[in-house]
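# step 3/5: fold
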Amino acid sequence: MSLPTIDDLEVSGKRVLVRCDFNVPLREGRITDDLRIRSAVPTLQALLERGARVIACSHLGRPKGGVKDELRLAPVGERLTELLGRAVKVASDVVGDGAHGAVDSGAEVVLLENLRFEPGEEANDPSFAESLAALADAYVDDAFGAAHRAHASIVGVAELLPSAAGLLLAEEVAKLGRLLADPEPPYVAVLGGAKVSDKLDVIGNLLDRVDAFCIGGAMAFTLLVARGEEVGKSLVERDRVDDVRAMLGRAENKGVEVLLPADVVAADAPEEGAAHDTVVLGDIGDRLGVDIGPATARAFGETIESARTVLWNGPMGIFEIDDYAAGTRAVADAIARATKNGAYTVAGGGDSAAALKQLGMEDAVSHLSTGGGASLEFLEGKQLPGIAVLERTGG
């Protein structure tokens, strides 16, 4: 991939619209995880240092084209002011009088209101893209987490203004790209989460690259069923068992090892306080698996620590509940040791990033991606609209 970067744009004295990914979790109006805001700061600082006036924009949540006060970007503006060390003027709308007034005020940094308050955003409406583009002289996309969306602020504006990738977007493409282009062996992919259907395309694209998969989380139970195991009341995607069985056959033919849980934490319910204990898989009975067991964690850890390249996407259990977090913690510890030993390690965004934050281990990997769905689609080998448009029109 050859992406134009901010080095390819003339920004001094120009208004630069920067598409960021400020889709951060909020609780009672307070930001509970500011990783995505912190990750955008280097690009914003670089543009300001080069004499640009910055107009930042982002979506937040799913307001479905209508205004929802609880999804306004004011909390993001406050945090961004703290991180940049300079005032951020938050506009009262996206492309209306409030936005134009904020831009015309001469403020160094303007933050537009939630893009998804406008129905034209998700529809990639040409007139809305033109209204956004009219605010600026150039465009920078730094929202890797939204690069898989063909929305107006991602695709439409890039086709109308001189455009480039921000530092974060370029870094994500380069660092995730290392997992697909000639990764150093042994290469281990650690996958978890709820649904195997979300990861089958990733597994398929990695089969020619990895040496082993360590698969935990609820998705592992569909694979176990495909191998003829009993999994009690654990979550199983019955309609994907044949697909999984075919995938396991391809892995065997290619000599790719697929490690699955041999023991699990079995619970009466996927809830805090439910009765639970650790059992070998065959003794799960009519309960459900909520975490990998210690023997499985040790086997996964040994495989991970022997690797030179590690991808981690998805927790090993219901890590938000302390009683069911030990497997995820063990995997994170093993990946941290692999990193310390010189392996190249990447954690995909979403729940993996949330787990590392919960464990206080955000620095345990070589690269912590800000993308959830975007990371998965990239690793599936798909062409992301936000990247494709910059390759086509940027500079």
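# step 4/5: annotate
The chain has a mean pLDDT of 95.
# step 5/5: archive (pending)
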